Structures are given as structure tokens and as C-alpha cells.
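Hi team,

Filling in the usual template for the complex we talked about on Friday. All components are listed, including any nucleic acid strands or ligand strings, so the model treats them as one assembly.

SUBMITTER: L.P.
PURPOSE: interface mapping
COMPONENTS: two
RESIDUES: 857
SEQUENCES:
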Amino acid sequence: MNARLLTCDVLVVGAGPAGLAAAAAARESGADVICIDLFARAGGQYTMQPAASDSPFHAAPQVRQGREAIAHCQALGVRMLLETEIFWAEPGFVIFAHQKGEAITVRAKTVVAATGGMERPIPFEGWTLPGVISAGAAQRLVKANGTRPGQNIVLAGTGPFLFAVADTFAKAEISLRAYVERQKPGIGTIDLFISHPSRLGEALGLLRSLRATGAHRYTGHGIIAALGKERVEAVRIAPLGQNGLPDKSRAFTIDNVDCLCVGHGFQPVIDFTSLLKAAHRHDDALGGWYCVTDARTQATDVAGLFAAGETAGIGGFRPARLSGRLAGLHAAQAAGRPLPHFGIDKLHRDMIQARAFAARLARLFPFPAHIADALPDHELVCRCEDVSRAQIKAAIADGASDVFSVKMWTRAGMGPCQGRVCGSGLAHLVASALGKPAAEAGYNRPHMPLRPVPLAAAEAALALADLPHGVET
Amino acid sequence: MSESLPKAADVVVVGGGVVGAAVARQTAKDGLKTVLLEAKAFGGAVSGASLACLGTHMHNIEELPILLEACALWQSLSEELGDSFEYNRSGQLRFILKPEDVAIAERWIAGERAAGLAPELLSPKEAQEVEPLLTGPIHAATWAPDSATVNPFLAVRALLADGKRAGVMAFAETPVERLLLDGDRITGVRTSRGDISAGHIVLAAGPWSARVARSIGLTVPIVARQAQCLASVRLPPSIRRVIGACESAGGVESGYTQIQQAASGQILFNTVMAPQQTPAGAEDRINEVPRRFVRDSIAMLTTLFPSLANILMLRSWVRFEGVTPDDRFMAGRLQDGLLIAAGDNGTGFTRALFLAQLISRAARAATDARDGFYNPLRFAGGKP
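RESULT (copied from the run log):
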């Protein structure tokens, strides 16, 4: 087993917009910076980099922004560790990871958690059928890999991200059968752009892209079920009734579908900050549980640990980039590097404004957790461990009082995804059965390892932490 | 949970782990109006973290008649409740790494054979016949065919469900703040959700039992000891038995190992090579496994089972056992109106059903000749 022990001033976890901004800012302050990411290419989701050199996406503005941010980090001498999975972190900070079979341990003076967001799936009838994929996965297939996810595609769910995915389809010249959005554009949308006129151009561009996909647009509609035997063949939808659930008396079926892309929003990835015991709070408008930070410095309540971007609450690209820069500068300062005399105030002001726009936008597309209430008893909630809604109900009837006890008695959330896929739906189902808020029903608290890790890599990485300080291998 | 607490009961059991759930079920079956109070989630503390091995091997020669009965109770419970908690009579293999430990193993075997049990000393080759993937460099092994395992989560769930059928009123997320006293007699408990008066209070709160007792100035010599475990992802059947270390004198702190494969396919493994400190109050915090423990556990697993060297680790957990000065349960009457069944020393599952009967007897003023073995007043010269 190869093993490397590395040291740095600032370790940035995540190489999306927030992480790249943090890494560059810390390096500009003179700090020695390492930036780690799970994926083979830096960029994250919004500024994702295509694999193929002839991809039609290279000219897209998001891809260009990502390319420039990555090039800037490289020119500054940020050490990038890609395809690197962190499985444990200790305060102080020692971070344990592995990269393609090699163990890597990093000692850092300060850490910026820019771990990004992940989709916030809600279970519905037929959601585990092959051909039903998340909107984020669809975007990654098309944009990063140049793979078409289907021939007859329906894009459904809620939120501005659906526009971004439609835009990706349009740029790849993939047509869409239908676009199904729970919300109807209304006075709130107009108000938002009156307050933030600079964002109107982008929104209109996305709308043009959606038109270009040829999708039939159903606003104010929700998914009832994905239908099919071996895989998805049709999608049943209906206009929403007063209770926010699809009105089944007005339901209809979109036939001949081979791919349903579903997105209902994002949640912060907080496994890393939770492991380091930073404070977290719950706010639906920020994607659920998020890491609490100081808005100016992006410091968490753990000395030396900063959080930026979606980790500190879902807000999208602009807050991510701005908060990343603030976090990078202050993490470098906490590691003994000087803070620039100018520019912090403006960064802070811009970040507050960008967050305000994101928060208002989020309120236009509330997270519809209650969709899960319509889940049939036989349908799976946890797909790693094949746990149905009926089994979850039975556990609650036997006295399970929170997500943790349901997990013990049903194995829901105990599989290799460690609750990432079922967590939000499970929390809602348990909370609504017990008459508690979802936040109180608890979440899947992370422990070592954050992700499955080969025993040999874990042993080798942990062994490195016993070496004396000042050593790099 | 929205249902309100009853105002009075015959028995209030404090602690909803395997011992508390078993006690509540037993007292209810024996006709007593029983309330079970759990501070957090049923079976969520050390019971849920347990590897739940039921057995007689290398526990205590003097205790063997009780252990035999305790293990038999589990087997009949599994039959009675329709195999609802993965009772698996897997047998137990204790590996011996050093020649000098053979003598210790032989002493245990002789004592257990004298009590009518059938443990054996195996050569490495014989051990491999019992456990084919155990190809590591062991010197010998003991084999106890009567050991079994249960799924710890489902066992607590089954005891709780069966107890409710017998009339147990069970409440999760209901911590007991203090005991209520009338003169020298314990008359009830104060919880976060109101008072309950009761003829008998049973402390079955593991390492938290001492704190509840302290609310009336009573000292119970039970301390918390950290226990932890690692788990792999699900794997095809690889390990058939419970694998343990043949301990030298000194018990857990001289080198403890337990490895087994759960019915889910996950391999559960833990090795403690060096004494660990359990800081005061650690049982009330969220804890991470010690780095040294992870390394030792991986090293032991892959030394004994070299073919498992490349498996994926998925999970780890830390919980707290309640430990008495002599590593033996305290079970019985502490004071008027106050009973205790705590001090599991990490082996609560084996004894839970036997202790449930003992406590129910005590609550009904019945006696059994064997009850003195766990006399809770043994540390205080017989006085509360």
C-alpha cells in the first residue's frame, strides 16, 4: 500500500466554485494550499468540466468559468488531489483519505469545507425503476460524459435547477418530451426580478433554452408515479390540488417515456463538518441541515474550520464563489497569513446580496417533502437495504421514536450510500408519522468512515498520523 | 409520542435496552402493571451496539448453571416469537496466538466440561475445518458449539413488542430526572413528562443507573466503559462462527477481540489491545472510535482472515457499557421500592432473560436460591 503524508497551511475540501475560490484566495495570501475533490476533474456541478476535448460544452459560460478558476489555482500553485475520498477527519486537523488505492493523510493548520450540495430526493411511486434518474445525474451524464440518458425524456420536479438542466439538454441538442414544474410563475417571480434586475438576462436565457428543447410545459403539475415493468415506460402526472399533492381526479399519463429526470432541490453536504463537530441548523430555505458560519469570515464555531458555498446553506454559484473567497482569505489568516487590506467589505456585501437573491428564489420553490406522504406502502424508501414504507410504519408502530431507531429496526439508511439517498424522505416520513418537525426526527449522523474505505487504505492512512510532525512522505 | 404517562404503576423500569425490555416484559407477564421508560430510543445505547453473543464459554465457572439456563431462555424465546430476531446457534471459536495461553484455555475447558458442557481445544487445522477462512497464524483455538448470536436491534424490538402484548406501557424519549422518596422508601420517578408513583422502580439504565440512584444520594458502583466496533459492507457468507480472543488473565483490557458476520452479511469486528480511558461524562457525548482501535481491529481481522484484507469498511460506532467493581451484574433489591439490573460488563444479552425473571421474583417478594449471585449489596457489606 502506497501512503503519503502531506502538510499544508490550508486544506480546501471540494473543488467546486466555492472550493476553487477558497483555494485561490488562500494561495494569493501566501498560504500553502491543498485542495481535495472526489471527482476526476475539478469544477463541481455548476462549473463541471467535460471529459471529452471536443465536447460542445467547452464554450458554455459555466464551463469557461470553471476552466479559468482551475487554471488560476494551478498557476498559483495550489496542490490539487482529485479522485480523492476523505474517510475521516480529526480536529487539529488531520484528514484521512485515499486516492486510487493510495492512502493520503493531510495535516493542515486550517480547513475550508466546500463540500457542496447533493440532491434532496423524495420517494414517489416508481422512483426506483431503471430509467428514473436525478436531474443532477442527468446533467452530469450529458455535460461531463456526453451521454444521452434516453430518447424520450421527461424532466420533472421543482426549482430553478430544472431550468439549468433543460439548458444543458438544449446545448446538447437533446429534445425533451415534457417539463413538469410544481410551481406556476406568479407575482413572486416578477417581484424577484424587480429587486434583482441584473439577474433577468440569465433567467430569460434559460427560458429560451427550455423552449429550444421542445418540451411540453406543465407548470403547477406534480408527479404521481413512474410507470413500467422492467423500466420506466410512462409518467403519470396531475395538476396540484389545494393540499399541494397532485389531484388524482385530473391525472393523465405521458406515454412512451424511457427516462424520467427528477429534481426537487438540493441539500448541503454536511458529513465532513458534522464529523468535525461544527454547529449545524435546519432551515428548509437553505436545503435543510446546513453548517452555521459567520457571514463575514465564513468561520464555523470550530476554531480553524471554515465553511463555504452550499455547505453553509444552498445558495447557488454566486454565493458559493464569494463565500469561498471569504473563507479562503480568513482560513489563510487563521494559518498566520496577512489578510488583504481592501476588498473584504465589498466581498461581504456582494455575498449578502447574492444570498438574498438565492433565499428569495428558494422561497418561490419550496421543498415539497410532503410528496412522500403519498408513497404507497409497498414502495421502497431505502433502496440500498430494500426497506419499504410499510416496514417503516411497522417500526414506528412498535415504538421507534426517531430516524435512528427506525434505522436500527429496519436497516433503512444502513447501506453503502449511508443514507444519502433515503435520508431526506425517511426523515419526512418518520417525522410526519410521529407528528414532529423533520429537523427533530434527526438525521443520519456521520461517523468514521464517511464513505466505504478499503481496510488496507484505512490502516495505512491512520498509521501516517503517528509519524512526528514536520515530516512529509 | 403523544400518549400521556400513567400516574401510577406496580413497576417502573428505567432504561429501554435489552435488560430493561426483558424485565418489563417479564413483570407484565407476571401480572404487574408495568411502565418502561427510555431516555432516548429503545435499544439505542449499548444494546444496539452489542455483538449480542449468547454463551457460556469463558465467562465464570461458578455462574455456569445460571448461564446455561439464561441461554436456554433465549432459544425458547426465539421459538416462541417465531424466529423474529435472527437467533443463530453459530458456536464460538476462541483463537490462541501464544503457546503460553494454551494452559489458560485448558483450565476453562476443564471447568466447563465438569459442568456438563462440551468445549474442545482445537489445532489450527481443526480450527480451519470449523472456520475455513481462518488461515492466519494461530497456535490453537477453543471451540464452544453452544454459543449463539441474535440481532441486537431486533431482539430488543421483539422483547418490547411481546411486552406490550402483555400490557407494558413503553415510552421512548422520556428521561428519568430523579427518584421520588417517602422516608426510606422509593415511591416513584420524576420524568421529563411528569411523575409516576410505583411499588417498585427497576434501574436498568446501564452506565446511567448510578446517576439515577445518585438523585437520592445512593451510591451505585457502576461506571461507564467505552466499547466500540467496526463493520464492513455486506459480503457473501465468509465467517460462520463467533470469533474471539482467548483472554489472558485481566479480561478486556489485556487484549480483547470479537469478530462475526451478521445475518445482513456485514462483518463486525473489534479488537482492543491496550487499556482505554473512558473520560467522565463521555457516555453523554457523540464519540468517534479511537484511531488506535481502528488500526488494531483491522490488523487483527486481516491477520486472522488474510483473504478479507481488501474488503470495504462501512461503519463504526461507540457506546458505553456499565461496569461493576467485580465485572458481575448487580441484580436484586437495593432498597425498599428500588431494584436494579445493571452492570452488564458488556455481556448483558446473555443474562437479560434470566435477570428479568430474577427481578420479577423480587418485585413479587418471591425468592430463588441462585439470586444471591448478583446481590447488589455485595459491595456495601449488605447495606444499601
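MY TAKE: Chain A touches chain B at residues 90, 275, 277, 395, 398-402, 404-405, 408-409, 411, 414-416, 418, 434-435, 445, 447-449, 452-456, 458-459, 462-463, 465 (CB under 8 Å). The longest strand of chain A covers residues 102-113.

Thanks, L.
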